């Protein structure tokens, strides 16, 4: 598709520039596409967009490519450990008795944690192989936001959508559907990788082919996230930065040009905390979050 004739699905803008051209990740580190792929930046809303065909999120092949297996246990093994930091960002003051919906919840790692305090939990997940487990754990289950039954409309106090919007063909439509499900005063918390991750700047040859990936259609900055929320009808959109990986992972990337995970280099907690705070203050963290409300 010629980008000059492409209309941005977020802002309807038609003015694009090339953001990245090269190999991109297909699944885990080390697996890349065989041919160069193109990522365009919309000059109007600042979103990055990967050219190509959509991914099938109902398929086992997708989960096997990201989680080393498509089973419920594979999902929990891959994602249970990520939940503490979400809870730390969210706080626990406004959960008890509330209706909490997680969109793109997978096999329910986050919702299982919410279940004890929440009044009700609603799971939205396209992969049907997880549905029986989600139901057994007490969550109301729907494959898509467009299919959530009327009884939940206007009832959701807190919606969460972690690491999902970058996968969606039409994120404006899905966020607008979520907005329609929120109760008066309800809020949505969204997260996505930050396109201004410092490693993209420091390792312009090695890091982009890891950062850009086949399953991510969109690449957001704080500004483009603000534009996305506004396009979906949210009156208040408050982006903020969060750094997920530690100083050791960062140093080993610089040395080895590959991800190593957390905890591989001993560093004083105060040093690690100030490293993360510094990245967040300058907008170069690896992740972006945003609160959105009507
Ligand atoms: Zn745009």
Features:
294 residues, 7-stranded mixed β-sheet, 4-stranded antiparallel β-sheet, 11 helices, 11 strands, globular, binds zinc ion
Which term fits the overall shape?
globular
Distance between the termini: 35 Å
Number of distinct helices: 11
Poorly predicted segments: none
Tell me roughly what share of residues is in helical segments. Answer: 25-40%
Strand order of the largest sheet: 6-5-4-7-8-11-10
Tell me about this structure.
- The chain is α/β, with parallel strands linked by helices and 294 residues long.
- The chain has eleven helices and eleven strands.
- It has helices at 60-67, 72-79, 83-90, 109-114, 131-136, 171-181, 198-202, 208-211, 222-231, 247-256, 269-281; strands spanning 16-22, 37-42, 48-50, 99-103, 120-124, 140-142, 156-162, 182-193, 218-219, 236-242, 287-293.
- The strands form two sheets. A seven-stranded mixed beta sheet has the order 6-5-4-7-8-11-10. The protein has a four-stranded antiparallel beta sheet with strand order 1-2-3-9, with no helix packed on it.
- Strand 7, helix 6 and strand 8 form a beta-alpha-beta unit.
SSE layout:
Layout: E1 16-22, E2 37-42, E3 48-50, H1 60-67, H2 72-79, H3 83-90, E4 99-103, H4 109-114, E5 120-124, H5 131-136, E6 140-142, E7 156-162, H6 171-181, E8 182-193, H7 198-202, H8 208-211, E9 218-219, H9 222-231, E10 236-242, H10 247-256, H11 269-281, E11 287-293
Parallel strand pairs: 4-5, 4-7, 5-6, 7-8
Antiparallel strand pairs: 1-2, 2-3, 3-9, 8-11, 10-11
Bound molecules: zinc ion (ZN).
């Amino acid at each position: 598709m010629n980008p000059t004739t492409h209309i941005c699905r977020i802002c309807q803008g038609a003015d694009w520039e090339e953001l990245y051209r090269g190999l991109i990740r297909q699944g885990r580190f080390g697996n890349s596409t065989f041919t160069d792929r193109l990522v365009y930046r919309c000059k109007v809303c600042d979103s990055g967009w990967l050219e190509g065909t959509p991914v099938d999120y109902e398929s086992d092949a997708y989960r096997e490519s990201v989680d080393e297996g498509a089973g419920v246990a594979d999902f929990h093994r891959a994602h249970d450990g990520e939940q503490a930091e979400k809870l730390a960002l969210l706080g626990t003051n406004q959960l008890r008795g509330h209706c909490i919906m997680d969109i793109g919840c997978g096999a329910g790692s986050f919702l299982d944690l919410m279940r004890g305090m929440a009044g009700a939990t609603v799971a939205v997940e396209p992969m049907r192989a997880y549905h029986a487990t989600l139901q057994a754990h007490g969550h109301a289950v729907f494959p898509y936001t467009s299919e959530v039954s009327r009884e939940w409309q206007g009832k959701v106090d807190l919606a969460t959508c972690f690491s999902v919007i970058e996968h969606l063909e039409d994120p404006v439509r899905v966020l607008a559907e979520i907005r329609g499900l929120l109760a008066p005063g309800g809020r949505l918390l969204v997260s996505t990788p930050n396109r201004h991750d410092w490693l993209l700047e420091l390792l312009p040859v090695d890091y982009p082919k890891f950062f850009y990936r086949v399953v991510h259609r969109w690449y957001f900055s704080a500004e483009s996230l603000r534009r996305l929320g506004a396009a979906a009808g949210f009156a208040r959109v408050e982006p903020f930065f969060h750094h997920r990986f530690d100083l050791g992972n960062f140093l080993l990337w610089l040395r080895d040009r590959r991800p190593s995970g957390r905890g591989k280099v001993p560093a004083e907690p105060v040093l690690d905390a100030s490293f993360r705070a510094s990245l967040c203050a300058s907008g170069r963290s690896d992740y972006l979050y945003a609160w959105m409300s009507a």
